[in-house]
Amino acid sequence: MSFLRDIKLLLGNESVITGYQMQKFLIDWRKRYKGSALAVVLPRTSNDIAALVNLCIFYNVPIVPQGGNTGLCGGAIPDNSGNAIVLSTIKMNSIINIDEINNSITVEAGCVLKKVQDAALDCNKIFPLSLASEGSCTIGGNLATNAGGTQVLRYGNIRDLTLGIEFVNAEGTIVNALRCLRKDNSGYSLRDLYIGSEGTLGIITAATLKLFPKPLGKKVFLVSVYSLEQAVSLFSYSRSFFCSKITAFELMSGLCIELVQKLINLPKNFINKAPWYLLIEISHDNNEHEIIDSISSFLEKSIEKRLILDAIVSNSSKQNEEMWLLRESIPIAERELGKAIKHDISVPISNISSFVEQTNNLVQAVFPGVKHIIFGHIGDGNLHYNIAKASWQSEYQLLSLQNDIYDLVHKMVADFGGSISAEHGIGVLKVGELTKYKSIAELSMMRLIKRAIDPNNIMNPGKILDV
Amino acid sequence: MSFLRDIKLLLGNESVITGYQMQKFLIDWRKRYKGSALAVVLPRTSNDIAALVNLCIFYNVPIVPQGGNTGLCGGAIPDNSGNAIVLSTIKMNSIINIDEINNSITVEAGCVLKKVQDAALDCNKIFPLSLASEGSCTIGGNLATNAGGTQVLRYGNIRDLTLGIEFVNAEGTIVNALRCLRKDNSGYSLRDLYIGSEGTLGIITAATLKLFPKPLGKKVFLVSVYSLEQAVSLFSYSRSFFCSKITAFELMSGLCIELVQKLINLPKNFINKAPWYLLIEISHDNNEHEIIDSISSFLEKSIEKRLILDAIVSNSSKQNEEMWLLRESIPIAERELGKAIKHDISVPISNISSFVEQTNNLVQAVFPGVKHIIFGHIGDGNLHYNIAKASWQSEYQLLSLQNDIYDLVHKMVADFGGSISAEHGIGVLKVGELTKYKSIAELSMMRLIKRAIDPNNIMNPGKILDV
Lengths: 467, 467
Known about the structure:
homodimer, Uridine Diphospho-n-acetylenolpyruvylglucosamine Reductase, domain 2, 467 residues, FAD-bd_PCMH (chains A, B), 16 helices, Oxid_FAD_bind_N (chains A, B), alpha+beta, 18 strands, 20% strand, 7-stranded antiparallel sheet, 4 domains, Uridine Diphospho-n-acetylenolpyruvylglucosamine Reductase, domain 3
């Protein structure tokens, strides 16, 4: 086939994978999405990608960009037609430059997040984006889905952490907007249009990211609370007490902790069974005894104000890690209950408590006995609101209800002023849902933009929008 | 004329200004841009604006949105054709809602920045956007130009401070994306496309903005340094010393201070004549003596490291204000030297020193004797690099060199990886310059977007892009 021959001529045989060796690129890590492709192409440079896009325009071949293949909505997996190529950025994994004075780092799109974090630490700074898949997800994928994670409360999503990007647009032109500038008001922000566009407007090839001073120390503590209302009040109180020192405020339901303790040992003196737990992380520049005093004083006052049931404070960085492990083990621990129906949603923080109460009640009324696995980032109003099968149900029975459960939960999310995709994106999973909950005006403007920028619809077609 | 009759029918006579009373809307505050218009229209609601846009589409009348009319690039002033209307948002100045738990405030576009800051303070929080015109500029204008100001170092531009916006698009549809969400990855970020688009894609009508905890205290100190290289090194050192506590790091040249002291009294014990001064602000949650100790220790070490010449530390909030007054008086004080040729530029922080040295030399070689008025936000790499007339020149002689001086300075900015508009936007002033320094690919994509979203070219035509 002349298309494949032309790619090989362009990029070399070793950059083109076909046949059975494509498999790992054609299925996502949760094995929820499987597709096929003409080839998987592994470009080494932005020039390679520009040439490839030109070729794809000529042959009218769609391109599905893929980073670490850690997405949760199928955005990096091709459809079943076998007409597309997968463009994997795994060979573009260099750190291009660190500018310590400018507090910025420039990296290729295929660079794994952990590598960027480590490079920052090597010069005593931090790149604060942090999420469960950080050991394998790539910066390009993080940008394509505007990744969030656990430090958003203090540092923002990757959108807020990005100074500039380079991308290849749908015409096959390299657009170098790799600016290291903190202020640049010279026209429309193409950077922000591409961030979160999930490869549907072109391929992000490199980025310049912000680095931050490394806090002197971190302290983690766990508290238990009766109710989500208490959890939200505690969040407000802790913001006024610790101000910007709070870098995480994570929620875990009692059920999450029950499941996790089947996998790992709970910290010593772990609090008695409670309906809800919070992991709170303070990043500070104080000395050790000052911050311990400050946390003790905060906890005493919180008990006086009847905001918490109990608390334990980490006394070492090792114990910090143990506490984080609790939170990070939830996605694996919940598999114990079988495949769950997952919702990655956000609501205004002030609505969290009533949203969960009313949605739980409604879910139980319509689907009695199913289990609620609820955890997430209170400080961002972002909940992972997952539903596992009732004890009398089979996994199949639950999964066959997926669309009905989506309908119910997403309708409630909309009623409470929320978003049906807080941090995972739309991919293919939520294309239909988006048309229900995004306004007609917004969808129509998104389509105008997609058609103007990618008139041939070769950039990740069928993702986000069914154009 | 039937267009005017129809507007009056739609919005009421009292919402339409014609004739001589339009004057103050047709000229900017610096009296650099003057235009004419069919009418100035003062809508009260988003519905008014949507109806107005529909009418303007029907009659093919361009719309020039205007907030507080404090812009520096002529973006809110119509051209001389007299074909357009000015849409002033001054009657849309309500605070719609404050959600203290969600740390957000929702306001109409015509709300003056100071009013938003005050509303935040009333609930013991802050809205950190801060700039010289805060007493008269509006949130809508701030968003349209992605306003920066003095607190960007810690809190970011208004883009970073915005959760959601409502706008009326160029089809006359209200797009309500007034989300109060900190995480929302559901498709292209129309919010970020409209922020910084200077009214060329539609009219921003309301916004939901982030509020932050109010720091317990602020301390300002002034230091003098020999060179910009020292200033940048001091910035790096202070970031590692104070981490996120630094909320401003402002540069003033010796000449700026000389000019300012003709207007106001300098603080007592003000440092001797030096080539450069820095105003550093620390926002902290410590008690008074702790922060004084910390600043003293920082200054001692800075002297040891030969990073500073001298320093004075404010000892009261009154003295904080006096120190800020120095910095804020520069734009007025520089008028002493006549109308200047102003550059609002940014470069990577690591390039500030060599950029200024080389550009100063080049400017003196080509335009001998002109004066350099340099101040700005070191922490953002954002300099106000202004050129005033030589002692032997008339104001007219200098202004006639404007294009040559722009060429020289902007060429240097481009060579140092910078932006020709850091925080003021493009307006009409820099439309030509933008075509020289933005890549063809970026300009072409900006035009694609403008044409797709505003096919009739009725939204602030001629601003940013000459479509």
